[in-house]
Amino acid sequence: MKFETFINGEFVDLVLLDEDVAKNTDWWKWLNHQPNTKLLETGKFPNTLEKQLLYIKNELATKKEILSLKQVDKKIQLGVLEKKSNTLVGMVAAYNFNNISRYCDVSVITDLRKKNFNRLMVFKECQDLLLDHVFFRLNFRKVYSGSYDKKLSDLTMKIWGFELIGIYKDHGYIDGKYHDAYKLELFKKTWEKKTKFKR
Predict the structure, then answer these.
(1) Which residues pair with 164 in a beta bridge?
(2) What range defines the domain where residue 124 resides?
């Protein structure tokens, strides 16, 4: 299918999402693949195309709102398109916007069923593109992220410069037991120093 690119990258593009994307890709099925959602709050109940369409309508900022670059209250979510295969392999999102204090949350997910791409390279570039957009186009000063996986949190701190700001003990119920949640933050000034060589 032909996707509508919003942000161009070297190996991936971040594309706009709508009903056509939901209907013509396997995106909605990702949340039924348990390894994809093992460490997420979602995925505990079956997903359907109908639920995905409602999610797009009720939870996500529209294409028009995203393209306007104006203040939005709904989640800005973009698809991660692996250029070489023209395949939707992940999602990035910015949400929980505080437009007065200028901070929000960010997240990334890739579909673990898809094996024919360099997952780490895609993961890094799509997060880079999202952070650049949030900091330099939307002018937020800080972003939050987090995970139930300590290794993933450590990797996030190492690659992007996030700092650990807290651990919620026994916070998430996963596979029959409670897990700690690691809360991270990244300031725009830190990201500017880390990416200075790019501009």
Answers:
(1) 184
(2) 5-141
Choose among 81, 72, 92: nearest CA to 9.
81
Average pLDDT of the residues of the chain: 93
Closest CA to 131 of 152, 88, 161: 161
pLDDT over threshold 60, residue 197: no
* 79 in any annotated domain: yes
Residue 98's φ and ψ, nearest 5 degrees, are -110, 100
What does the pLDDT read at residue 41?
77
Burial readout 76-87 (b: 16 or more C-beta within 10 A, e: otherwise): bbbbbbbeeeeb
Q: Where are the alpha helices (DSSP H) in 6-118?
A: 19-24, 34-37, 49-59, 63-68
User: Which positions ≥6 away from 131 have C-beta within 8 Å?
Assistant: 106, 143, 160, 186, 191
Which residues sit opposite 107 in a β-bridge? 93
Beta bridge partners of 179: 172
In the chain, % of residues over pLDDT 70: 98
Domain count, the chain: 1
Which two tokens mark 197?
């060589």
151 membership: H or E segment, kind and range: helix 150-160
| C-alpha dist (Å) from residue 180 to 8, 109, 118, 168 | 36, 19, 29, 6
What CATH number should be reported for the domain holding residue 19? 3.40.630.30
